Amino acid sequence: MKRKKEIIDELEREQCLPEEGLRELLSTKEKETLEYLRQRAEAVRQSVYGNQVYIRGLIEFTNYCKNDCYYCGIRRSNSLAERYRLSREEILSCCKMGYELGFRTFVLQGGEDGYYTDERLCEIIRAMKSSYPDCAVTMSVGERDRESYEAMYRAGADRYLLRHETADEAHYGKLHPKELTRKSRMECLRTLKEIGYQVGCGFMVGSPYQTTDTLIQDLLFIKEFKPHMVGIGPFIPHKDTPFRDEAAGTLEMTLRLLSIIRLMHPLVLLPATTALGTIDANGRELGILAGANVVMPNLSPREVRGKYLLYDNKICTGDEAAECRFCMEKRMEKIGYQVVVDRGDYIAYENPGSGFS
Ligand code: 5AD
Ligand code: FES
């Protein structure tokens, strides 16, 4: 325990660890060590963000996808998925509801759907920004070319989420068909950052074929890339995918990784994800207590929620936006945290001299 405590102190101090240190933290079974890791991550999170929790309104606007990722319920080969697209008007009415509920960030997430040309997406972004100029728009629409990313940025998009999924090339190949490559993923991430987006990468915890070594590579990649946001949540099998019989990722490992990521990157915007809330009824609360500082309640219209199913047993598919919003506020209050009406930008943008980098 003493040695592990020193490793955790080193991680907090240096915001980094040599591979062997990461390996020890990823493999230890000592309860006290894990509790100490959580406490240090929570303390760092408190020193940067206090007890505030940022909320993002998630609008799942299309579940058409041209890709065929083995883990994902909306992969093109899943002929059982009931496909839908939201119109610009439907998206704007989600924003209206969201704005009234206190959301100041909207996340447009969808499959890689060719229907949404640059022109269509830019028109939607412009409409959102002109109606809600005090809100941030986050795009999460997968891999596109540089021109497309530039056009969306010019139209007013502020942030982009593109999980790297795994930093290990061989592992990447086991999760995706051969048309999808780690190289192209990483190129997209670098392009997004160059353009000026606040960028989020991330991965699933406990995805099939993940090992301690691939996780170390994920952590080292995050250290090197310095994303503004990191999205991680447990892998959960979907019954109509090739990974239907694989085991889900665990609560414990997800919490451990949230804490490590907080210590490596004190300023990072780190959501306690819906997938975490799906594997454990208190998953999102435990995520916040382990160092996360963002939650992303669903703003999609109730009629389509049950269709945007990346994995089985997803929570909140029967709830209205307002229910999720207030449910989240209560959940956070119960653990001593406060949901705030704020864009919740990466703080170094506002405050370059904060002492953390
Ligand atoms: N379990 C958990 N997360 C998943 N995602 C896709 N399928 C699953 C699943 N079965 C994640 C991917 C993707 C994000 C939008 O959702 O990491 O990037
Ligand atoms: Fe959706 Fe609790 S967050 S019902």
Structural class, by secondary structure, is alpha/beta
Range of helix content? 40-55%
Instruction: Tell me which ligands are bound.
Output: 5'-deoxyadenosine, FE2/S2 (inorganic) cluster
- Spans where pLDDT lies below 50 across 5 or more residues: none
Keywords for this structure?
6-stranded parallel beta sheet; 12% strand; alpha/beta; 9 strands; binds FE2/S2 (inorganic) cluster; binds 5'-deoxyadenosine; 3-stranded parallel beta sheet
Give the structure's gist in a few sentences.
By secondary structure, the protein is of the alpha/beta class. The protein has helices at residues 2-14, 19-27, 31-49, 88-100, 118-131, 146-155, 169-175, 182-195, 212-225, 251-264, 274-279, 283-289, 302-305, 321-334; strands spanning 52-55, 57-62, 105-110, 136-140, 159-161, 198-205, 229-234, 294-295, 338-340.
Question: Can you characterise this structure?
Answer:
The chain is an alpha/beta fold and 357 residues long. It has helices spanning 2-14, 19-27, 31-49, 88-100, 118-131, 146-155, 169-175, 182-195, 212-225, 251-264, 274-279, 283-289, 302-305, 321-334, and strands spanning 52-55, 57-62, 105-110, 136-140, 159-161, 198-205, 229-234, 294-295, 338-340. The strands form 2 sheets. The protein has a 6-stranded parallel sheet. Strands 8-1-9 form a 3-stranded parallel sheet. Helix 5 (118-131) packs parallel to helix 6 (146-155). The longest helix is centred in the first third of the chain and has 19 residues, at 31-49. The chain is globular. 5'-deoxyadenosine is lined by residues 71-72, 163, 165, 204, 233, 235-236, 238, 275, 310-311.
